Amino acid sequence: MSFFRIRNAHYNTLQVFPECYKWTSFGITSMLQKFWDAELHRRKHNPTKYPNPFNIEVVSMLERALAFNTTGNAKCIHRGTMFPSFIGKGIVDRGHPAIHRDLLARSEGDTSYTVHLEYWPTVKHGGYTQPLLSSRNGLIFHYSIASYLVRL
Fold first, then answer.
1. pLDDT of 65 above 50
2. Sequence-distant contacts of 142-150: CB under 8 A, at least 24 apart
């Protein structure tokens, strides 16, 4: 058997991982695609309106789930937001994420999702109830603390 034949056989077995990764992360990536398509649609029809911060947080949780799917490292999971929404609990317990049925809603025939704010995880801070954010560390690391503390 020639060297090139052995090398090509080895190379073809290495191609199995990307296909398995696509298969196991299909639910996460398809949800990310739906949120992206909804954002493009919103920008097309109303470019001056800011994106919904809760949609950004759901995307942040899905990206963390995708990072966990890639690395297997539980540090990717933000317990404050991902466990109450069942995304983190599903990944840790079963290996696949789940989303709490009361958190997201989709109207009949509509392709975009709506986040129900009354089911979003919150924390009491200084006498005020604030929503928990899974994108906090990313905002502070890539931009600054000022970008995280901005008010709507």
1. yes
2. none
